[in-house]
Amino acid sequence: MKKVEHLEYSRKNVWEQANHELVQQIMAFAEDYKTFISSAKTERACVRQIIRRAQAAGFQPVDRYERLQPGDRVYITAKEKIAVLAVIGRQDWQKGIRLIGSHTDVPRLDLKPHPLYQEAGLAFFKTHYYGGIKKYQWLTIPLALHGVVCLADGQRVEISIGDRPGDPVFTITDLLPHLAKDQMVKKMTEAVAGEQLNLLIGGQPRQDSDKENAVKMNILALLHEEYGITEEDFISAELEAVPAGAACDVGLDRSMVGAYGQDDRVCVYTSLQALLETKEPACTAVALFVDKEEIGSTGNTGMQGRFLTNALAEIGCRLAPQFNELSLYRMLAQSRALSADVTAALDPNFDGVLEKLNAARLGGGVVITKYTGARGKYHTNDANAEYVALLRNLLNRQQITWQTGELGKVDQGGGGTIAHMMAELGMEVIDCGVALLSMHAPLEIASKADIYECYRAYKAFFND
To answer: Where does the record locate the signal sequence feature (predicted)?
Structure first.
């Protein structure tokens, strides 16, 4: 009788296959990743990091070129929140590009246009949460404040408080358990209301001010002295309250990274590094970094905007003498893309929400996800079988450890990515990224091994 063991699919674990040299590479790669994500607390800061690293690697603004040649390295950015980087390939770009798209925005607390008030001798900022959060997770943790304020005279002021040594931090208070009888019987979705997510920012009154507003006036005086801000300037501000502190190692073996915003800046970093190391690929390699994914990809910096097609047109007209809109869409129809986004990892503490046979595991390598969506696959891309096979075979050829994943049991819930919006342009698209524990929490957990395999997968894709 013939042996049939080779017919069965078996999961792999990166750590189990890694020799000492590979472990060292994984650990070293994670160190730079932690530096990146610790400095990219907002979408603007994230894009600044992207462009700074791109410039150091020889990328130039596309408008500096009249004609592009194989090996040229260009970038296009807008609003400081969205960017495209490209390395021009050897082949005619009409045969298609290799595109990896990730998103720079993450769940957070935005300050309202009129945020500052005083009550009970304390000063607070009112916030409006952004993206899908569990509101109770944001109570009683150290928070930092980052963003920009546009003053009445047109000057723009950068704000960064809470992440430098010696900085004060902010927090949102919670009710003590001794008095929380009514709170504790509420549903978790109702225990903390959105209007209760008020940032505690001060408690010292200004001596020369009316007692009713003395603490508020002291805060305004401090802000004006340091930044030139008046209360009206908050109306033209983008200020975000985010968890304070740097990314850290998790576990005695230091095998994991704990950080805020790994959804989706882990894919931002890995796709960026993969492109920076791509020299002269066969097909033009493009990395896309978009905003607003967590709230539906809307606006002129979201995936539903025209930034990507406009950016590709800027590149195309410098490559093809007879470039027109039809040639752009023909090129897109020949292109292959990865929607670089994270997925849920199996958590033994909450394993009832995932179907174990199809759930991703930490340490199992990069995750390919054929479809996301909710329940009946609503709002998903659902990659074609032929394209799944192409990616699977590429990863196997390059000996990259990979796994498949789903975002929960069929009727449990779900979520979406930018994959279906990319596919609407005609490209073949599949989701491909890192599995996380505690996704959307102030501290998310990723395996260093998965981060490294994700980078290797993206690099192989760009150079295929």
So the answer is: none
